[in-house]
Amino acid sequence: MGSHWLGFELRVALRFLLEGRKQTLLIVVGVAAGVAVIAYISALISGLQSSTLNKTLGAQPHISVRAPDDLVQPAALAEPGAVVSGDTQPRAQRIRTLANWQAIAALLERHPGIAAVSPMVSGSGLALRGEATLAMALLGVDLDRYDRIVGLRSKVVAGKARLQPGEAIIGREMATDLGVRVGDRLSLQTATVLESVRVTALVDLGVRDLNRRTVIVPLRTAQSLLGLPGGATSIDLSVKDVWAAQSLAAELRAQFPGKVESWQETNAQLVSALNAQSVSTALIRGVVLVVVVLGIASVLVVSVVQKRREIGILRAMGATRGQVLRLFLVQGAVVGALGSALGILLAMALIKAFTAFVRGSDGLPLFAITLPMSTAVQVALVATVCGVLAAIAPARSAAALDPAQAIRI
């Protein structure tokens, strides 16, 4: 019985749609344009966001665990009501090692949400070569562990990433400023020590300022340069789900002494911008869907007026109100489905055009943009459901028609 009535409704619905070819074509194209805009904007914003995130998180850990700041306690607590003269001066921060860092690193490695753990010693100093002197940010790392955090090997632009004792990897701009090439030596000076190292690789960290001052050396070299034997100033973490970093940081804060910061806290403005983008995309999608619904509804309302006679005849021949109602709902679904299929194809063409014509200064596409199958199916389903919803009001007015009056018109 179910297939019988559906066959009748579908046949008549298609007949009605084919009779008003121009109207049908216009509304299908309208739905297609709406679906294409929604799918394309979704793919574009998601590509832009993942590209921004990759660039930002490509040069920093998802979570960092550092030694707590030095705080100066007041000499004595003031009596209630007493007037206190003088102020507590904040202490100049010295490089502090993370207490018991080996045990903390071992615990973190066993955490199910953490993908990689890398201890680091960081400090500042000067890089010297001949007459040239540059301020440097010194990072002491275990290369294999650090590579799992920021993918350092993939950022090498000259030489081969290797960190044996007496070797260093430096930023591309620093090499230019100091006139250093792979294989050359340079001196690293801190407050107490001067050490000569050989450059094994030049890296591009994605930010010019970082490239201008970063010097990466083995963990032990940095410990001796900064006077922190066996110490580590921070532990960098990479997590399996980047968006879970903030809640994981809060969990670690409760477990370990020290300063635990997630990338969301370090890049608060970026997170606000990403959230604003997501809200804007949702608003655009909502407005376009409303336009699609109104378009389908208006065409079907006109169709009910134009087809009053046919509806009256169908009712007089025994078609029930339910069948007439379903007939218009099927029209809405068909228009929604056809428009969705066409819209997804149009969105894919737009994405292809964007990738082909919008390029950066290096001639490569600005960022990867793809339309995942899940997004395409989701948008198509939503548009088809909207087609059915848009047909409800016209369908009810068609079902409420009095057959005798409809035929007489």
Descriptive notes:
The chain has 409 residues and is an alpha+beta fold. The protein folds into 2 domains: 7-56 and 271-408, no CATH class; 101-257, no CATH class. Helix content is 55%, strand content 17%. It is built from 14 helices and 10 strands. The chain has helices at 2-19, 21-57, 101-109, 143-150, 172-178, 208-213, 219-225, 245-255, 263-266, 268-306, 308-316, 321-357, 373-399, 403-408, and strands at 63-66, 114-129, 132-141, 156-159, 167-171, 185-189, 194-203, 214-218, 234-239, 259-262. Strands 2-3-8-5-7-6 form a 6-stranded mixed β-barrel, surrounded by 4 helices. A hairpin with a 4-residue loop joins strand 6 (185-189) and strand 7 (194-203). The two termini are 33 Å apart.
What is shown here, in short?
55% of the residues lie in helices and 17% in strands. It is built from 14 helices and 10 strands. The chain has helices at residues 2-19, 21-57, 101-109, 143-150, 172-178, 208-213, 219-225, 245-255, 263-266, 268-306, 308-316, 321-357, 373-399, 403-408, and strands spanning 63-66, 114-129, 132-141, 156-159, 167-171, 185-189, 194-203, 214-218, 234-239, 259-262.
| Domains, number | 2
Return the structural class. Answer: alpha+beta
Fraction in helix: 55-70%
Counting DSSP E segments of at least 2 residues, the number of strands comes to: 10
What is the molecular shape?
elongated
> Which residues form runs of ≥5 with pLDDT under 50?
71-78
Number of helices: 14
SSE pattern, N- to C-terminal: HHEHEEHEEHEEHEHEHEHHHHHH
